[in-house]
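Bug #77: duplicate submission created two jobs. Keeping one. Sequence:
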Amino acid sequence: MADGCMRLSGAGYRKRALEQDEGHATRTLELFYTETIAALVAIEEDPHEKAITRNEATGIRIQLELLETAFMQGLWSFLLTSFNAVSKKLQNVNTTISEVISLFNGLVKVVSDTREEFDQYEEKALSISTIQEYKTLRQRRRNQNLQPGENRDNSIQLSGRDNFRVNTFNVILDRTLTELTRRREAYQKIYSKFSLITDMKHLSNEELREKSIILSQYYTQDLKENLGNEMVFFKAYCTEKKILNYSPLELLKMLRQDNLQISYPNLEIALRMFLSIPISNCSAERSFSVLKRVKNYLRSSLSENKLNALALLTIESDLFLSIDCEDIIREFAAEKSRRKEL
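Kept job's structure:
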């Protein structure tokens, strides 16, 4: 065991691992794939190790030696490296929605191109995998009652390679591409509402007024109908001062510095709304925070269904508080009533 562990704990390993600023597990596994398998073999053959430890090492080694595992670690290493770079940019407070859309366009292009690179990933996996063939699915043939004129020759039997490509490789990339496209469209929808601000220099006065009406109708409680006139006047002001290339943040700072928010109150509100829209979300983290508040020591014996229901009511508290519960309570009381008329 000592020799195998030394391969993974020596100075060379630490240096190479630290040089990879991404730091995720798939990248580390890609760098030390053969060393990891050698270390597992050393653990298996070490008589001083517990039997359960040797068995676990054997199971992990068998999985790592599969061609499919070597293929997937190379694929995920590439994808997670790309996602990690975008994630770091999304966490920057100065990142704008237009930049986010460009980042998502890049990810969509990367995933689309990766779908056509199966052979490259396969070649790389074959170079490090112990097993050089894909697992072939062996299925028991079902007895079918064939109608006159039918035969079993129409059934398609995929090879191990084709089955892995169709049912694993393509499925992962297609689902990832669908989710990325959905999120990009959500950002594009928000961006289009505020295009009168981001694309002000490219829009005519009539287009500015039309887009201002759409935005003010969407935020009726915040913006007035004269937003269009303010945009036309402000564009003329920016043209005169030659600041049409300013970003929304720079425009808001300029409004405050020149004390123009009194002249353009609706524009100032629209700028603040646009700049305060978060470019990322943390719905999963909020769910865990809610569970921590709901399932305290007084509710430690809650069933899963009840816990899920309480968590959903807490997460969607705004919607829940807007619902009139009197009818629901009366309905519930009527159903649970045990009084019987004599």
